[in-house]
Design a protein that fits this description.
The C terminus is likely disordered. The chain has twelve helices and nine strands. 46% of the residues lie in helices and 14% in strands. It has 293 residues and is of the alpha/beta class.
């Protein structure tokens, strides 16, 4: 079996490639960057091509492929890239296409970074290929942007709100993707990919307080988060994500008990808890601090 991963160097792509290689699957990665291609596991066949820049030059990446996993970066070309990739896969005879969309995508389709996913999702479903949609909730790994505020100001600043999110670890998204790509019985399914617990901003702050051994308070100011995010994200995307967090503040991003149970069934184990993520990240940051002095 040969699988093409579009987005292999990202938060989900990296652990997915590890999962697939561990299963003995042959992996090809499509990337626009030669630098990213060079950073991949040497067992991965890397193809450097730009689907939106020249779709015809990207055709070889899809030849001889049994299944495709696609996660597109949020850019102004996302819709075109996704739709072209679906067509390139279909015309190459790919039989299975797994696409990462967003939890409750219909509710969030007014957001610029979500709207393309709804369009691409519909194209995947109408492609004639066997398809599976993965719809993840908010990521634990969004905490990566909070290192300064947590360690220097004692603040948990990700504005997830007071209703809360059933956030999920990217390693669990990758594990479900590997199951959908290599297992049977997943065609025509849209899987909510969620964590095991509903957590609001104050819950997250309390868990960080325990891990760091110091008082952490939840701030959750969307505008402050947007301003801080501008240092690492394009301005349009930091603004867009701020809109998303305002939505979370109003109604949360909440999975049902049935969706949580389905997630456990897909994984064959309990999803990773937030406490595990926080303990791991806190230890990593502490080690980094020690190494700096």
């Amino acid at each position: 079996m040969k699988i093409l991963v579009i987005g292999a160097s990202g938060k989900v792509g990296k652990p997915l490639v590890r999962e697939l290689l561990a299963k003995g699957v042959s992996v090809r990665a499509l990337t626009r960057s030669a630098e990213r291609a060079a950073s991949l596991d040497p067992r991965v066949e890397a193809v450097v091509a730009d689907i939106t820049g020249d779709p015809l030059s990207s055709r070889p990446a899809f030849q001889g492929i049994d299944a495709v996993f696609m996660l597109n970066q949020p850019t102004f070309q996302e819709t075109a890239e996704g739709l072209l990739a679906v067509e390139l896969a279909r015309s190459a005879g790919v039989v299975r296409f797994v696409y990462q969309s967003v939890f409750r995508v219909d509710d969030l389709a007014y957001l610029p970074h979500v709207a393309p996913k709804l369009v691409i999702q519909l194209a995947v479903m109408g492609s004639g290929m066997g398809w599976t949609i993965l719809s993840p909730n908010h990521f634990y790994q969004n905490d990566q942007m909070t290192q300064f505020s947590l360690l220097k100001r004692g603040e948990y600043s990700v504005p997830v709100g007071l209703v809360g999110c059933t956030s999920v670890d990217v390693s669990d998204i990758a594990a479900v993707a590997a199951v959908a790509l290599t297992g049977s019985g997943h065609d025509g399914r849209n899987y909510p990919v969620v964590g095991p617990q509903l957590l609001n901003g104050e819950d997250c702050a309390a868990i960080w307080s325990e891990a760091l051994g110091t008082g952490i308070r939840y701030t959750g100011d969307v505008e402050q988060w947007q301003q801080a995010a501008r240092s690492v994200l394009p301005p349009w995307l930091s603004f867009d994500l701020g809109m998303m967090y305002r939505d979370f503040g109003r109604r949360g991003f909440v999975a049902s008990e049935c969706e949580i149970a389905q997630m456990q069934e897909l994984l064959g184990r309990a999803p990773r808890r937030y406490e595990e993520h926080v303990a791991s990240l806190a230890a990593e940051w502490t080690q980094d601090l020690r190494a700096a002095f």
